[in-house]
Amino acid sequence: MKKLIALVTMSFLCSALADEPALQVKGAWLLAVPPGSEDTAIFMTLVNPGKKPVRIVSGSIAEAAKVTPMLTTKEAGRMGMKDVPFFEVPAGGQIALRPGGDHLMVYGLKKTLKPGDQVSLKLMLQSGDAMIVTVPVARRSPQ
Amino acid sequence: MTVLGRSVQAWGKTLLFPVFLVVLVVGGIAGSVLVTRDPQTHVHNWFDRLMWQRVPAPDFTLTDYNGQSVSLSQFRGKVVLFSFGFTHCPNICPATLSHFAAIREALPEAMRDQVEFLFISVDPERDTPERLKEYVPFFHEDFLGLTGTEAALRDIVYRYKASFVHGKPRGGNPLDYFVDHTADVFLVGPDGQWELSYPFEELPKTPMIVDDIVRLLPESQ
């Protein structure tokens, strides 16, 4: 019996190790937008301590229709946005998603999110793994 | 080598101090002349003098979110900060309006009512006055949202050396599109002069922008 318990514990440990997130998320927040606004953005710093690049292909929150990677562009003095299929976090490196820059675009908010609210963001990686990140709603960067 | 019976080194030692004095005095005079040439420009104090332009701000008349006709010229006597954008903008525009709020908050309390913050929507199709009324005061109740006909907006951005482009509808929905637009913030002084434009990237530098505004207001002179 003891052997069995040890075995089960081992297997739990192993699976826990295997599920260790490929990315570390720092300072995530969702921009509070006025009532009636259906689109907003999520910002964060993504750190990849691993030896391989990691790609984020999409996200999802229960409170909105979809969450996708979005680049901010500057062309002929105009700022704009461009859909991209993924954000790549380089091996041993990091990327910053911040106001006025690249972001996770949130489409089709189903309700007005207020500062102080929290959403549970599921980040889908290209590897097929997913990560859950708790994201506070704020008017400005909490840092 | 000798000159007038003395070595060059000896002349050098004798002349070093007088020459140094002359350079100091001439330099000082030239410097003070440059700085005080026109006290109205206080150009040396500007946030970034390369952007300093000071030309009459092209006037414009648009409709505010209360349905009232509003002209830039009616804010004469106040400082005006304005930007172009659209309310479906998920990133740049809320960030700009949040910076406006931070700037307003950082102003000396007595000056806050002497600064007008305008958000000009270049997306009149979707940004009705009702929509603007919902959106703009969220950032601060005193901020004004304006828009107008596309022709009027094109004319205004042209005269401010700005621009906007409506993107193609996304996913077959004619009301789902992005608007690329100039994200600079324009600063107009109480005398109706367009003082300068702040690039979007510089907006987090609140204290420097506040310093510029304070300098423009009569109380500080």
Description:
The complex is a heterodimer of chains A (about 140) and B (about 220). By secondary structure, chain A is mainly beta. Chain A has one helix at about 1-20, and strands at about 25-30, 40-45, 55-60, 65-75, 80-85, 85-90, 95, 105-110, 120-125, 130-140. Residues about 10-20 of chain A have low confidence and may be disordered. Chain B is an alpha+beta fold. Chain B is built from 5 helices and 12 strands. Chains A and B meet through strand 4, strand 5 and strand 8 of A and helix 2, helix 3 and strand 10 of B.
What's the topology here?
The complex is a heterodimer of chains A (143) and B (221).
Chain A (H helix, E strand, L loop, with lengths): L1 H17 L5 E8 L8 E8 L6 E7 L3 E12 L2 E6 L3 E3 L4 E4 L5 E7 L8 E8 L4 E9 L5
Chain B lengths: L1 E2 L2 E2 H29 L18 E2 L4 E4 L4 E3 L7 E7 L6 H15 L8 E7 L7 H7 L8 E4 L2 H10 L4 E3 L12 E4 L2 E4 L4 E6 L7 H11 L5
Parallel strand pairs in B: 6-7, 7-8
Antiparallel strand pairs in B: 1-2, 3-12, 4-5, 4-8, 6-11, 9-10, 11-12
Top keywords for this entry?
heterodimer, A: 143 residues, mainly beta, ten-stranded mixed beta sheet, 1 helix, globular, B: 221 residues, alpha+beta, eight-stranded mixed beta sheet, two-stranded antiparallel ribbon, 5 helices
In short:
The complex is a heterodimer of chains A (143) and B (221). With 143 residues, chain A is mostly beta strands.
Biggest β-sheet strands, sense, barrel of chain A:
10 strands, mixed
Content of β-strand of chain B: 15-25%
Helical stretch tally of chain B: 5
Fraction of residues in β-strands of chain A: over 45%
Oligomeric status: heterodimer
> Tally the helices of chain A: what do you get?
1
Helix-strand category of chain A? mainly beta
By DSSP, the count of extended strands of chain B is: 12
The class by helix and strand makeup of chain B works out as alpha+beta
Percentage of residues in helical conformation of chain A: 10-25%
The greatest interface here is: A-B, 27 and 29 residues
Low-confidence stretches of chain A: 12-18
Shape of chain B: elongated
End-to-end Cα distance of chain A, whole Å, is 51 Å
- End-to-end Cα distance of chain B: 60 Å
The unreliable regions of chain B are 32-45
Radius of gyration of chain A from CA coordinates: 18 Å
Profile the largest sheet of chain B.
8 strands, mixed
Q: What is the arithmetic mean of pLDDT of chain A?
A: 89
